[in-house]
Amino acid sequence: MFVKNQCLGFVSFLIFWEICHLLLNTHTVPSPLETLAYMLTVPGKLALHCGASMLRVLAAIGISLIIGVPAGMLLGVNETCKKLLSPFLYFIYPMPKIAFLPVFMLLFGLGNTSKIILMIWIIIFQMILSVRDGVEQILPVHFKVMNSFCATSGQRYRYLIFPAILPQIFSGLRISIGITLASLFFAENYAATYGIGYYILSAWTKMNYVEMFGGILAIGFLGIILFDLLDSLERFSAPWLKKNAAER
User: Fold this and answer.
1) What average pLDDT does this structure show over 176-201?
2) Nearest Cα to 71, choosing from 143, 125, 136, 116?
3) Sign of the Cα pseudo-torsion (12, 17, 22, 24, in order)
4) Does 27 map to a domain?
């Protein structure tokens, strides 16, 4: 079903693209067939740039999970931490995090570090709030059952809290992926030699619009790959979620 939906989405996008190409009748919007044919001539070059972007995104997501999930669980179970830190989170969360890119470049240089830290800065607050909300949705009776079995703190986290917040973790990641790819495009326009954002801007400055649209299409494929990986991880780590959805 997932593959079928992705194919239908891709075909409908190509149809929409072809209609725009015909209506606008300008060389700045090449046809999708011309773009796809060009992409097939430079698969190694595109793969190199997509690989660089993918590594940056995966590094940012991994670090954000390591920090954000425990922090969110702590906020969900500890009222003192929640009262102290929630005002800061509510203030910083709506801010456009991309505005911090110049700050990170000044502090951490122009290389990969500043770009990855920017993406972490974007993802981590979404992750913390999603996990905190997931913990707060756990019914008190479930904690009473764990206490009746004399469960330790570690057992409560392992067998109750963590499985219960998995839906919020995956939902937060899905939201974060789209925002992260958009911010990555912006970040890779500065002091980068590899990355899909650099590839698109370089093609634009050369007025090679076929190459530019090839890069845009590559971002779409990158997003599909990330969502597919996320769905596979969800099916592996939380199979009961898909089962419950099918039963409904």
Assistant:
1) 82
2) 125
3) positive
4) no
* CATH code for the domain of 79: 1.10.3720.10
With respect to residue 163, please indicate whether it lies within any of the assigned structural domains. Answer: yes
Domain presence at residue 105: yes
With respect to residue 21, please indicate whether it lies within any of the assigned structural domains: no
Q: Which domain holds residue 123?
A: 51-191
- When pLDDT is averaged across residues 98-109 and rounded to a whole number, the result is 86
Convert the pLDDT of each residue in 124-157 to its tens digit.
988 898 899 888 888 888 888 888 888 888 888 8
**Total domain count, the chain:** 1
Contact indicator for 182, 226 with CB cutoff of 8 Å: no
> What CA–CA distance (Å, rounded) separates 90 from 54?
29
- Residue-wise pLDDT for 48-81, tens only, equals 888 888 899 899 989 999 999 999 988 888 888 8
Average confidence (pLDDT) over 152-180: 85
The CA-CA-CA angle for residues 58, 61, 64, to 5°, reads 150
Is 245's pLDDT higher than 60?
A: no
CA 14 to chain centre: 24
Q: In this structure, are residues 69 and 244 in contact, taking their beta carbons and an 8 Å threshold?
A: no
Contact assessment for residue 162 and residue 199, using Cβ atoms and an 8 Å cutoff: no
Give me 167's structure tokens. 């839906």
Structure-token pair, residue 62: 């991994």
